[in-house]
């Protein structure tokens, strides 16, 4: 029996002292670490599918983290954890709008970062497990192919990030029923929903925006103070 390969993490951050500390710490935790110190180099590396996770700083010279996300165009399959300025809600929301899977405010404790990384990697394993089931779901003109993690709306391909895909599959698995933001956060982000956390709202907003580009009807209803419902279309 062979051991599973160690997860490979790409860190894109111009703070060389921080990246050196993170590389030492995460290497001791069993990860393979590659570091980049500017956005352009990071962008080229981010297109490489060998990475299991990308840690992306917001403020970098040449090409910022936001510009890097825009260049990827939401078509990346590798999950991205944004490292944002502490308390800067605008940065967090913009990062999620541009396709980041989650965010963590600087400065952070190393154990907090490790917990967030492990949560994302667990989420990826859940997605892979669903893929192995090899089935398809079709609800309200949305076709979800779990085997290849593909989504179509009215026959047209919709590019979703890994987090958006998992949010959608959770909502469609509970079609017609309210799914609370707390439940989505715990099942998809693998963490409890904290006060003023807009992560789930932004992921749902991104899904809606991508569907509306194909079809004007909103398939996800917001129930104020309760959560979201995926409509059956009947």
UniProtKB/TrEMBL annotation:
The modification 4-aspartylphosphate is found at residue 57. One of its GO terms (biological process) is regulation of DNA-templated transcription. The keyword RNA-binding does not apply. GO terms for molecular function: phosphorelay response regulator activity; transcription cis-regulatory region binding. Keywords: Cytoplasm, DNA-binding, Phosphoprotein, Transcription, Transcription regulation, Two-component regulatory system. Its main location: cytoplasm. SUPFAM superfamilies: C-terminal effector domain of the bipartite response regulators (SSF46894), CheY-like (SSF52172). Residues 8-121 form the Response regulatory domain. One of its GO terms (cellular component) is protein-DNA complex. PROSITE patterns: OMPR_PHOB, RESPONSE_REGULATORY. Residues 134-232 form the OmpR/PhoB-type domain. It is found in: Cytoplasm. PANTHER family: REGULATOR OF RPOS, TRANSCRIPTIONAL REGULATORY PROTEIN CPXR. This is DNA-binding response regulator. It comes from Thalassotalea marina. The gene is cpxR.
């Amino acid at each position: 029996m062979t051991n599973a390969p160690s997860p490979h993490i790409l860190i894109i951050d111009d703070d060389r002292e921080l990246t050196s500390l993170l590389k030492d710490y995460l290497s001791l935790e069993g990860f393979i670490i590659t570091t980049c110190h500017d956005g352009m180099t990071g962008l080229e590396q981010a297109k490489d599918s060998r990475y299991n996770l990308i840690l992306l700083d917001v403020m970098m010279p040449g090409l910022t983290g936001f510009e890097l996300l825009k260049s990827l165009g939401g078509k990346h399959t590798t999950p991205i954890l944004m490292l944002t300025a502490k308390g800067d809600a605008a940065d967090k929301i913009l990062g999620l709008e541009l396709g980041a899977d989650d965010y963590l405010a600087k400065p952070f404790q190393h154990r907090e970062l490790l917990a967030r990384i492990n949560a994302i990697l667990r989420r990826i394993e859940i997605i892979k497990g669903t893929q192995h089931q090899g089935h398809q779901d079709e609800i309200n003109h949305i076709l979800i192919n779990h085997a290849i993690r593909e989504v179509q709306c009215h026959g047209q391909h919709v590019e979703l990030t890994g987090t958006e895909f998992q949010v959608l599959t959770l909502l469609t698995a509970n079609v017609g029923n309210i799914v609370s933001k707390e439940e989505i956060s715990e099942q998809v982000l693998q963490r409890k929903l904290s006060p003023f956390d807009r992560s789930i709202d932004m992921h749902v907003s991104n899904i809606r925006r991508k569907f509306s580009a194909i079809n004007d009807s909103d398939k996800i209803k917001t129930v104020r103070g309760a959560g979201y419902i995926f409509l059956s279309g009947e």
